[in-house]
Amino acid sequence: MASINGIAHIQLSVSNMERSIPFYEKLLHSLEMVTLFNSPQFFYCIGRRTGVAISPIEPEFKDQPYRQRRAGLHHLCFRAKSREDVDAIYKTALELSAKIIRAPREDTWAPGYYSVLFEDPDGIRIEANFVPGKGHLA
Fold it and tell me: In sequence order, which ranges of 59-105 are alpha helices (DSSP H)?
């Protein structure tokens, strides 16, 4: 049996790099991530045990908007260290004029689950959550 240490990176395809790079740069830098690559074809930040990259969609897909329920990514969720971190991420989302789907609140996914949900410029949903203790692993 193999053991994993988290997700090394996630790469998202975006429709407009000029619009998405500033969004992800501000968001990811607010999460204490640093930029490794920043070009019109690839933007990549890393921090702790997490990497997030964006790259442009293929031209033949430019008229096909992101759909959450198609095959592929449904949403991505950053694990915060505290409720205050979730609140800070919400503030950054507001500064980015992101579409807020759900302001910070408790939910029933796990005991003490506290999260915010918003969208990037393409409508890809981004969540940040905090679960106290070991959550479901307790």
Answer: 83-95
